[in-house]
Design a protein that fits this description.
The protein is of the alpha/beta class. It is built from 13 helices and ten strands. The structure holds ribose-5-phosphate. Ribose-5-phosphate binds next to β10 and α10.
Length: 294
């Protein structure tokens, strides 16, 4: 493998532990100003020292992140949709030249296996891999959950394996029952998304279960930045991922570190100023129940 590719992969998954805590703050690319990310710069700054890498869009990277940061960047390069439209209808939104200009360590896109745009998103992946290999930039594929698809080991195993077969160097998916089978049948490292905000103890258990089954770590967003104690939470996640602490041990640390609350942090709903029509609300409701957005 080329030195540049190896170097970038090692920056995302540090050799010391072979594991990684990625901080995902790319949600705005289809969700707009989602809870906890209204001012991304303010959210990211205190968390950055505790993240092994930062996953975000080029707009937020350029405008909101200190360019002297040494934390590797995983750049979201797919999009073109919003919660008001069909989410699977994504295009590649960033050229590899711009990704290289931003000195990123990887590029990320979503694939929507089983959706009406399955073919397009898989073709996006294949073409991104072609460009990434040319530049020595690894591609991380996110297995977005298609409409009406169960989030189970059979489906996610299918998605992860296809992503790896098409050349993704890292795959991001969801934890589920039988997760070990997914890891074993995927020839590249897997990280898990945190998904919608749940109680801190449960989110730590999710991370614990995933790494116990062979995931190399997490690419977690809402369960960190929507926590009542985001810095405490990312540090607790690090204890699970890098120090093999149990969820209970990490949760004790979180409680001692500050303001952990046993229930979900209550957040004011965002006012987007958009009056959402009934049919769009229904589509969004279906997306939420499929676990794609919150
Ligand atoms: C979704 O496609 C985005 O890539 C998010 O970054 C991803 O879902 C991870 O964030 P969370 O832990 O909030 O699910």
């Amino acid at each position: 493998m080329d030195w540049g590719m190896n170097n970038r992969l090692a920056r995302i998954i540090p050799n010391e532990t072979g594991r990684t805590v990625m901080l995902a703050v790319d949600h705005g690319y289809f969700l707009g100003p989602t809870g906890g990310l209204e001012r991304p710069g303010e959210t990211v700054a205190p968390l950055l020292p505790h993240a092994d890498s930062l996953m975000l869009t080029r707009g937020v990277l350029r405008q909101c992140v200190d360019p002297t940061s040494r934390v590797p960047v995983v750049l979201r390069v797919s999009g073109g949709t919003s919660i008001l439209s069909e989410l699977s209808n994504e295009e590649i939104t960033v050229s590899m030249e711009d990704a290289a200009r931003l000195n990123v360590s990887a590029v990320a896109l979503s694939i929507f296996v089983g959706s009406e745009n399955e073919r397009r998103t898989l073709a996006n992946l294949a073409s991104l891999v072609d460009q990434g290999e040319q530049y020595g930039i690894p591609v991380l594929a996110v297995t977005a959950v298609g409409k009406d698809m169960a989030r189970d080991a059979r489906y996610l195993g299918l998605c992860c394996r296809i992503a790896a077969e098409l050349g993704a160097r890292i795959v991001k998916t969801y934890y589920c029952e039988g997760f070990q089978d997914i890891v074993e049948s995927c020839p590249v490292p897997i990280v898990i998304a945190g998904g919608k905000k749940i109680e801190e103890r449960a989110a730590l258990e999710l991370a614990y279960n995933a790494v116990s089954c062979g995931a190399v770590g997490v690419d977690m967003g809402r369960n960190i930045f929507q926590s009542a104690d985001p810095v405490g939470m990312i540090r607790a996640v690090r204890q699970v991922v890098h120090e093999n602490k149990t969820a209970d041990e990490a949760f004790e640390f979180l409680k001692e570190s500050g303001s952990a609350v046993p229930q979900m942090a209550k957040r004011k709903r965002q006012k987007t100023g958009v009056r959402v029509p009934q049919k769009i609300r229904e589509r969004r409701r279906r997306s939420v129940s499929a676990g794609r957005v919150r």
